[in-house]
Amino acid sequence: MTSVLLSAAIAVYSVIAVAANLAGPREPLLLLWLAAPLSTVIPAVIATRIVLTPRFPRPTRRFWAHLAGCAALCGVAAVMNIVDAIGGEEPTQVLSPWTVAVYGVAVLVLLVGMFRLPLDASGRGDRLRVALDGGTVLLAATVFMWQFVSAPMLEASGYHATQLIAVGFTLVLELVTVFAIVKVAIAGRAYVAAPALRLFAIGLIIGVLSGVVQGLTVDRPHLSTAQFVIPIVMICATAAAEAQLRATPAPPRRSTASQRSYSVLPYLAIAGVDAVLICVAWPHADLRVVLCAAVALAAMVVSRQITTMRENAELVDRLDHSSTHDPLTGLPNRALFNERLAAAIAHGPAAVALIDLDDFKTVNDTLGHGAGDLLLVSVAQRLSESVRPQDTVARLGGDEFVVLLVGVGADEASRTAQRMIGALAAPVLAGGHELLARASIGLADNHDGGDAGEMLRQADIAMYAAKHGGGSDVQCYTPGMAGAVAHTAALGAELEDAIADGRMVLEYQPIVELDGTLIGAEALVRWQHPERGTLPPAEFVPVAERTGAIVPLGEWVLRTACTELGPLTPVAISVNVSARELSSPGFAERVTRVLEETGVPPHRLTLEITESAAGTVAPLSELRRRGVRIALDDFGTGTSSLTLLHALPLDRVKLDSSFLHGAAGVLALAAASGLEVVAERVETAAQATRLAELGCHAAQGFHFAPPMPASAITALAAPSLSR
Ligand code: C2E
Ligand code: MG
Ligand code: MG
Predict the structure, then answer these.
(1) Which ligand number lies closest to the CA of residue 656?
(2) Does the pLDDT value for residue 582 go beyond 60?
(3) Distances 107 to 28, 61, 66, 100 between C-alpha atoms, Å
(4) Which of 576, 608, 635 to mutate to test the pocket of ligand 1 (most atoms within 8 A of CB)?
(5) Residue 722: what pLDDT?
(6) Of residues 339, 344, 353, the one with CA closest to residue 383
(7) What's the pLDDT at 272?
(8) What are the tens digits of pLDDT across the range 183-214?
(9) 453 close to ligand 1 (CB < 6 Angstrom)
(10) 533-541: long-range contacts, CB 8 A cutoff, minimum separation 24
(11) How far is it, in rounded angstroms, from Cα 536 to Cα 576?
């Protein structure tokens, strides 16, 4: 801003100096000339700053490099001009050919800069449109200049050959300038900030029209228009450069067809030529009717064309929209996202958040695609609501979404991602089901200079890291992440193969009354690994919980246990359920379906949950209403609080034997709440006796029986187990 004020001050000084010299020259004449070269320094410096600002795209920086060059050359030419003007005996307005040449080169540098601005025209049709628009304006300008400049000049000089060449030359030069202005007006928007473009145009127009005040200098050899026109034009250049520097380069949005098709310039040109026509022909009374008809016709054809263009533009916009947007959610698709991401990176800092829903597949598989679609639509809506208008939320396909955060670093991106997790947390009502949309989010930014592909790859790795951490989490990409993710992912994938290839087996551990009577069996999963032998659940269940493989694994365990022990087994079946399974969409429905398909009555199934499931009560209550029994596992090993026994819909609590000292309290509370207590991991007769004294009715542990194959359980089931 101060630079604009400085430029203005220099210009004001130059005007005052010229005014003071109107009556006659005042010594020293150098003071009169000082402003011109000085004024060129400021825009040259500011334009150079734009050139050195990496956040501007290349074409922008190139354009301003030309402007800086032009200003600098003007400065040099102005100094040479001073030497020509006051270096001799008498002040003169005659310029040396060298000075004229340097002024010429300055103008040329500017014109070339304008021509080099890339056209925002992508196809042949686009280029034709720009050519026709430009042609219309040029033709109109030619008519004007011919009518008001060239023809009068030629008439006055009596059509001399030399005069003819001079007129032709000026005409061509001015037309080139007009063409450059038209080009900037049509093409400039993409790369030069709009306010800068306007100021730039004003400067050009002042420069072109400066001939008008030429009269002032007639008979005053010490004066020259350069003394004040240069400083005035330079205010515009300074202000334009400042406006460009201030502009935050928002990534250029793909312009819609309706924005692309209109340029008012050609219509103004037609109106202008019509005006000339009226001026010239009106005095001829016999032509007036034809004249009015011609002008009216032109107006009608133009209106007709504008209407058609508007309709076409709407149609093209609709087609454009469907080729760049996802039909289900209405969000931009991958193609449009990539385009915006590339543009954003070219303009400066940007971050991407890759969002993948946890366990979405089970929604589709369990509740059907209708429910899945509803969930996706509401996720799209919530994500869009948690970002700023300049950000882009897109759907990459399936349950994968991505958000482009413009001009944002890692910290802010991370806060936005947390906000998104929060926005998704509220349950979604889809087809009569309350669904929880949990999501894993991976973040990456371009601070290390990565391109669009690299950013998406990094966000993908971070997203998997978030998923492997158990989901519903945000992770920012770090270079070491890929290895860890690959390891967990490999184990997770191996695990899913193992389920499919039948390498998972179940053992059953009897649950007995303290007198030894068999009342149930707990299914415990083992992995018969081809290289590492039989693996206990501690080796792979945590990984499965992290990768989500626990969901298919759990369903396999449930189905296998219900099939192997069968509907007729007198023993109740206990199956362990992880928190991750419980919160996976459609869990209650899946359990119900397995029970129906295997014919096991619901009251024969007990689901063992741990306190980490306390957050997901709804599916438990649902299943319990259908008759399934719920047990709280491992009570006494964690932070187990007695309040849990009230908070959860329970039928049974499994008490760890290491917690025997607190057993009396639990047993009393359980009795009061109508809960059954099963003591776990009972290893010695002493423990069994103590439990009996405390009034515990059932137990499980090596003291009674170890985990065993299904056949052994069915054999035991007929006579009751006695020890
Ligand atoms: P849990 O549900 O508490 O299962 C009891 C664990 O205690 C079993 O270990 C069992 O072999 C062991 N155990 C039985 N009697 C005794 C004893 O007298 N002393 C001692 N020290 N241990 C005894 P396992 O089979 O290694 O299973 C460990 C845990 O893995 C289970 O603990 C359960 O939380 C989980 N798990 C097992 N199968 C599944 C499954 O299908 N799904 C899920 N989500 N988790 C499972
Ligand atoms: Mg258990
Ligand atoms: Mg247990």
Answers:
(1) 3
(2) yes
(3) 30, 18, 10, 11
(4) 576
(5) 39
(6) 353
(7) 83
(8) 777 666 678 888 888 888 888 778 777 766 76
(9) no
(10) 540/491, 540/495, 541/578
(11) 14
